[in-house]
Design brief:
single chain, alpha/beta, Rossmann fold, Dihydrodipicolinate Reductase, domain 2, 9-stranded mixed β-sheet, 6-stranded parallel β-sheet, 13 helices, 15 strands, binds nicotinamide-adenine-dinucleotide
């Protein structure tokens, strides 16, 4: 497990981080909270919930005091991680439990809103997995209820706590790669995204991701993480959104698309794209930030300059041969030669191959915030906008239109101002 301490070894002092990464303020009091514990209840400890628990049980500042699930196999598995936790089958009972300071909500997407609102109203701090809600209106209501109740609100966007993402963003913001002209994100897989179902009546409960009643499919499950990269890099929110989705391969009764492309356009015309096909995995997943002086590939954790030093040895020879070969092909007159992709191997952002995705540090930050009862900067807003962007992408696909970012869903954050103040 990568800890905050490991992270600081890589990324320098906490003070330096705070200037550029406001959500690291969660760690400002960490020396004063030694010996204290965040008492956590996990609601919906299925696959993701158990993964998060596997980090929390190793954190001396966390005690998982309760779990709640309406599916016995999930309870049985979760109890293997926390045998002493109280068990509830109704989340409202867990929320009445005075021993619970904060909740980690890992139920399917359609249940996030109801449970998160009830948690805030019960006086609990909340960590909710992404995406926040299943509609932008739900997300706004969750954000507003967090503000009104003053309870801590974290969203499961682990890249915000990942060393290579943070360092890359510092380079982007320092202008290392020049002007950012495009963001390309994609997530390719080859698999049906199904989980085995013990009996047919459990199909929708287990495979909730595949049905629109519970999920927005690839947009909420995958795009939500990747779209956040663009707004983080550009420090602004796109204003126009368009896309297309279809079921082209997995025609197995699912309702969510297996083939999606979306385009998000920023005020200056720069575009961010998200693409996902789950019947070909050749390109895997990546988030690419394209500047006029260089490129970052965040999943790989590498950066590349446009004017790279010549690649050594054989690679250079191949490049030279290819270029001279293309130069010699008179397809469209003597001045034209096809562009060949840059084969330079680039450099690791942190100096080494990535090992972690930020989840453990994110959970440490949540525990600190629950103990101190202080909301760290910008994290709720980042989680909110990532959620709303993926949901607007879904809406643009469903309606077959190019959407303008609706005024009513803008917060006072980045380049947007709150248009309407809703009373909750
Ligand atoms: N941040 C990430 O990278 C990441 C990765 C995977 C999943 N997730 C998110 O985690 C969430 C859960 O995904 P998952 O794959 O663990 O799903 P899952 O189906 O494995 O687990 C959901 C659990 O919630 C339980 N549940 C459903 N309704 C409930 C209710 N009313 N009360 C109590 N328990 C209830 C289910 O029985 C199940 O145990 C989703 O929001 C998903 O988007 C995030």
């Amino acid at each position: 497990m990568t800890t905050r301490r490991d992270f600081l070894k890589i990324s320098g002092s906490a003070g330096a981080l705070l200037a550029t990464v406001p959500w690291f303020s969660a760690f400002s009091d960490s020396n004063n909270t030694i010996g204290e514990k965040a008492r956590i209840g996990v609601i919906g400890p299925g696959s993701r919930g158990q993964f998060l628990m596997s980090f929390m049980v190793k954190n001396p500042k966390v005690e998982i005091v309760a779990i709640c699930d309406d599916y016995q196999p999930s309870i049985d598995e979760a109890l293997k991680l926390t045998p002493k936790a109280k068990v509830y089958t109704d989340y409202r009972k867990l929320l009445e439990d005075k021993d619970v300071d904060g909740v980690v909500v890992t139920v399917p997407l359609n249940m996030h809103h109801e449970i998160v609102i009830a948690s805030f109203e019960a006086g609990k701090h909340v960590f909710c997995e992404k995406a926040l809600g299943i509609t932008p209106a739900e997300c706004l209501n969750m954000y507003d209820t967090h503000k009104r109740t003053g309870k801590v609100f974290f969203v499961g966007q682990q890249r915000l706590f990942c060393d290579r993402y943070i360092e890359a963003m510092e380079m982007v913001h320092a202008g290392t790669f020049g002007e950012i002209e495009g963001i390309r994100t994609y997530w390719f897989r080859n698999g049906d995204w199904r989980r085995p179902v013990p009996s047919p009546e459990l199909e929708r409960k287990i495979n909730w991701r595949l049905y629109k009643e519970y999920s927005r499919g690839l947009m909420t499950e995958l795009a939500c993480h990747q779209l956040q990269i663009g707004t983080w890099a550009l420090k602004s929110i796109p204003n126009k959104i368009m896309g297309h989705g279809a079921i082209t391969y997995w025609k197995d009764g699912r309702e969510v698309y297996d083939n999606i492309s979306t385009i998000y356009v920023f005020d200056n015309g720069v575009k961010m794209t998200f693409e996902s096909v789950i019947s070909n995995k050749f390109y895997g997943l990546e988030e690419q930030i394209l500047g006029n002086k260089g490129t970052v590939e965040l999943e790989k954790g590498k950066y590349f300059y446009e004017t790279a030093q010549p690649a050594p040895g054989f690679l250079q020879l191949v490049n030279d041969v290819e270029n001279k070969l293309f130069d010699a092909i008179p397809f469209a007159g003597t001045s034209w030669a096809p562009e060949t992709a840059n084969e330079n191997k680039g450099d690791y952002i942190t100096g080494k191959r990535p090992k972690t995705d930020g989840t453990s540090v994110l959970l440490e930050a949540f525990a600190e915030a629950v103990i101190t009862e202080k909301q760290p900067g910008n994290i709720a807003e980042e989680g909110y906008y990532a959620s709303v962007l993926c949901l607007l992408g879904h809406q643009a696909i469903e309606d077959g239109v190019m959407l303008d970012f609706p005024e009513e869903y803008k917060l006072d954050y980045l380049n947007h101002k709150r248009a309407v103040t809703t009373e909750v």
